[in-house]
Amino acid sequence: MDKGKLIVISGPAGVGKGTVIRHLLEVGGGDFAFSVSATTRQPRPGEENGREYFFVSKEEFRQRAERGDMLEWAEYVGNYYGTPREAVEQVLASGRHVILEIEVEGALQVKSRVPDALLIMIGAPDFAIIEARLRGRGTNTEEDIQRRLKRAREELDLVGEFGYLVTNHDGASEAAAAEIMGIVEGGESVFGSSKGKMQIAEDFDEPLEELQEYM
Ligand code: 5GP
Predict the structure, then answer these.
(1) Span from the CA of 33 to the centroid of ligand 1 (angstroms)
(2) Percent of all residues in the chain with a pLDDT value above 70, rounded to a whole number
(3) Global pTM?
């Protein structure tokens, strides 16, 4: 059985990553699985534990990161977010592609641990669109919006680290999803020449000092 590909999708808050990924999951049938991250942030109205995220305490997050259970993790606007490693490995081994929707710092960690992962950044045609979308959500405080906008600029500065940039034009998220599908179909397998062994480096060290700072 062919092994799945690890697809990392990043992009500034408000760029519409969620909508693009929803289309991707629809058109991809059962070939794609979405990796549900762990986070210490509070659930937004309508979010369910285990569906959008696993909502955990900072203490639980810290323990899991220390045990090496996270493929990557990062602090974002005052909270931790991380990708549970085992679930990703299991899905890839079953032959399905795994989508990680994560911020840029985590994406760069994946790049170093899984060199053949496909790194895709979703951008907007114009920064004003990002701000408008972020405000339109109505679920973030002004302080949170300002921090997310600052982080959005920093994230876009790192686009050169990504293999692909896909622009999500207004009302064209299906086209963005189709573009990503093309990248996945044409891209290199995560397993490259390793004959079925997922290339996650086993010897990475979690930057625990940094983690503890936020506890
Ligand atoms: P939000 O709070 O809006 O759901 O997510 C904030 C940011 O965290 C987004 O950029 C999202 O992509 C990112 N994020 C979600 N899950 C993870 C994860 O597991 N790891 C990392 N590094 N970032 C994540």
Answers:
(1) 17
(2) 86
(3) 0.85
